[in-house]
Write a structure and sequence with these properties.
heterodimer, A: mainly alpha, Cytochrome C Oxidase, Chain A, globular, B: 2 domains
Chain lengths: 593, 240
Amino acid sequence: MPTYVAHDESDYAPPTEVAEVELYHPKTFLGKYVWSQDAKIIAIQYGVTAIGVGVIALVLSWLMRLQLAYPNQFSFIDPSNYLQFVSMHGMIMVVYLLTALFLGGFGNYLIPLMVGARDMVFPYVNMLSYWVYLFAVLLLVASFFVPGGPTGAGWTLYPPQAILDGTPGASWGIILMLVSLAFFIIGFTMGGLNYVVTVLQARTRGMTLMRMPLTIWGIFMATILALLAFPALFVSAIMMILDLTLGTSFFMPAIVSKGQALSHDGGSPILFQHLFWFFGHPEVYIVALPAFGIVSDLIAVHARKNIFGYRMMVWAIVAIGGLSFIVWAHHMYVSGMNPYFGFFFATTTLIIAIPTAIKVYNWVLTLWRGDIHLSVPMLFAIGFIFTFVIGGLTGLFLGNVVVDLPLSDTMFVVAHFHMVMAIAPILVVFGAIYHWYPKITGRMLHDGMGKFHFWITFVGSYAIYYPMHYLGFMGVPRRYYAVTGTNFIPDSAHSLNVAITIAALVVGAAQVVFLYNLVRSYYRGAPSGGNPWNATSLEWQTPHTPPEHGNFGKELPVVYRWAYDYSVPGVRHDFIPQNVPPSEVPSGSWAKP
Amino acid sequence: MAPHEAVGTASGLPTPEGMQSIVADIGSDQRAFKNVPWGKPMMWIFLVSDTFIFGSFLISYMTVRMSTTVPWPNPSVVFSLEMFGENVPLLLIAIMTFVLISSSGTMALAVNYGYRRDRRTTFWLLIATAALGATFVGMQAFEWTKLIQEGVRPWGNPWGAAQFGSSFFMITGFHGTHVTIGVIFLVIVAVKVWRGDLDKQRPGFLTGRRGNYEIVETMGLYWHFVDLVWVFIFAFFYLW
């Protein structure tokens, strides 16, 4: 009779290598909740700030959609405003919401808990990280109130136009944007060093890298990407500030503007694009990899099944991380760079589809014959798979040079990246919040409101972005204030735009239900207990919920197995937490090796 | 996994071989890098990130140098110093480089004496390192002054491409900032060593965390990195 061996199960508890750290418990209210050095509080600070600034970006997207559907109807939206909305919406969503929420929010909360650490390794620096981030956010928000308003250069901030007269916000807005980005990067680096070193050096006994939950793998790899990619943005921000303020010509070629030759000469605008996208493409994966990791865990927990091909999942994360650094110029096929580059970057772009496809197959194979519980986190996880596959496939279109050329700068591009790196990760963010909210607050989020939120968001996103692909095929350009009075755009495109806008307003309004649910459940939600989802990973095994400072009470847990022992054949309970030694596993027909 | 096998406990799992054993070693529990304090990998990872910053700066400099249509000023003329009525190319830079590389030597000695718990010698070596670093920054200030007096500005210069001045001030300025920050922290660490904070495990002023002699080594990592970056700036800016 074959005996079953749980994955990586072993009764060996390694000796402690790391001495217990002193925790420096905060004594005052301010030390506990405001100037807090506890990663969990910092995570909540990050999360609330990111969601707050995300709401601003959401409102901006409404204004954009209103203008697109009903051009010339709104007196408060002029062409400059419109471009400013586009730029700020993009930058806030990508950097200040998603990056900060996944790494600063979920990273801070989950890394110490899931690897079995007391806290991040440098709590003081971790605290500084948040306050620098907040400062960056305030600078960004301040740009709405300066003369000329925020920058309207598009979120990519391409020079020369970003800093030339005529572009909205070319005097104040762009400087605030660049300085804000520089501070964001400084703040992120402080946090990022914490995340990486905590994962590498502060795991608990028995927590090998290959036993870490995939959430941690995703956040870990994304942090490494961010630490290596943000420098390029930092450098380009500094150089652009110099171009603006000191009159240097790093990115500025000889230009005649309004009949006047500018003093700039001899710079390279394409250099900025290379630097920007050397940051910009890994940035896509900085957002995507944590989402990949989290969704793997959501699927495994709520399908009561071990993740399919754990090792492959880990290596796919590593491979995607590595490849993401050599694909950046696929954003630049029409930039005027050497056309031969296109061949190289198209090839690497298509190669990255392989590890990505491995992950998608493994998610689906994890679901296959699983004991699927259609809880709210699971709904969002499944929704993610759908939107991610759609967005990924259109990415293959755009990755090929010849297909990209006609589609470049059309609504097709907008639809593609919103599907793949806006909707897909944000669905994971929602799923993750529904999943971990009980651990953070000790209360469940309301299930009915959650399901309502999911269906409106999921179906609504399709209603927004699916038709947008067709607009792109028709050649409707993006970033245009109004496309009325053109012959090549049929009337049907305009009615489509109206439909998209209505869907966008509905989806946006549904988020209010979510925010209400967050607040209401904090006071009135059903008590969740320590482990409402019967999950195996360490954050659910803490003695207190929400976990106290120091996370694990007197003794750190010892890990004996991977995080995916769900429905192990022959075991009475359908899950075995990571810290349960083999000798204590309630055994039926299950035999020790 | 391998570490279980390595300490000779029966786990019933096969010992990994080849690549897998490397993965198992790095991935073994608690620590990827054994017997190092947290600060050390933190500094290494930060330096890799910083490498990307300087790499981006230098690559941008090379790009603008190639893309500009105006001839590039000749560095051996621009960076020459008049000595005894003769123009000696790169004289100041040679001295600056010598000073900075020497400071790496004193830093390495400071780390060594730190681990021997020799407070006095460590303190003086750290101060020597800081002094050499400050000398470097002083000479850089002199170099900047000289160039500015000769008419070099970030937006133009008398000899050719405007990007010469822009890249020069930006890159050497960024490096000089690194050296300055290093000097400040060297002095802070030196004071900690002198007062015996590291022996007595006195809590830090801001962080409240207890120091140890490993911070001297972490400081040293940063300092050697700043020196190494200078070598590249020297090669790409002054020798090209």
